[in-house]
Write a structure and sequence with these properties.
Layout (H helix, E strand, L loop, with lengths): L8 E7 L3 H12 L7 E6 L4 H10 L5 E5 L7 H11 L4 E6 L2 E3 L3 H8 L4 E9 L2 H6 L2 H5 L6 H7 L15 H10 L10 E5 H6 L12 H11 L3 E13 L9 H17 L13
Parallel strand pairs: 1-2, 1-4, 2-3, 6-8
Antiparallel strand pairs: 4-7, 5-8, 6-7
Length: about 280
Amino acid sequence: MKQVPAYSIGVIISTYNNPAWLEKTLWGYLFQTLPAHEIIIADDGSKEETRQLIDRFKDKLPIKHVWHKDNGFQKPRILNSAILAAHSDYLIFTDQDCIPRKDFIATHAAYAEKGYFLSGGYFKLPMNISLALTNQDIENENAFSLFWLRKYQHLKWHFKCTKLIKNKSFCLLMNAITPTKATWNGCNASGWREDMLAINGFNEEMQYGGEDREFGERMFNMGLKSKQIRYSAIVLHLDHSRPYKNQKALEKNRIIRQNTRKTGIFETPYGIKQRY
């Protein structure tokens, strides 16, 4: 029997006008071995179709819908609103296009520790498989089976397919030897809410491109460490375009991150406190 944590766990899912992918992601939270105390959907201004979808899940999952008016890419701001709306001690962050495996929340809970944040992983699916996945595929975990994906969905083999090998010893080894640093990844990361409030949340001055990494860099500046669980805590990343990506914002974000690392600042001057 799995031990139930003594603290409460919430999941924050960012979304923007993609109810088809959000629905598949929410299916994954129906089948968790360790359910969340709350699921907060941080909605960066989606239209009515998304609200209707969320309403259909409210009798199945402990959902809160946090929404603001669409005014361009404001993901850091809506994530800060979600942090404020949360009541849980521990928060897992992910996106509308990331379907969690059944052990997703339980794995984050198993590795959670004061003084640390967790850096999880994802496996990116091509568009044809992203479209084909059904509720049943997610419930019976075929969607996470490398054998099933290769034989029945014709997934091409590449090294990143090893992320789908569900063997504890193998995963521990790969977590230890991977050259990828344990950074804050917006699609799969977790930490203590009190630490997020201490660094004043996300930098609302930033747009797409590194805003999640900057959040983690300020956690490092505050003295926190990170744990690598990219092979243990897995989500399936559904394919999509990124029309909000632009070079001007990327350059601005690069300068902000450079300043964060250079100065050692941990509390952003453009975060939660500035609203009041």
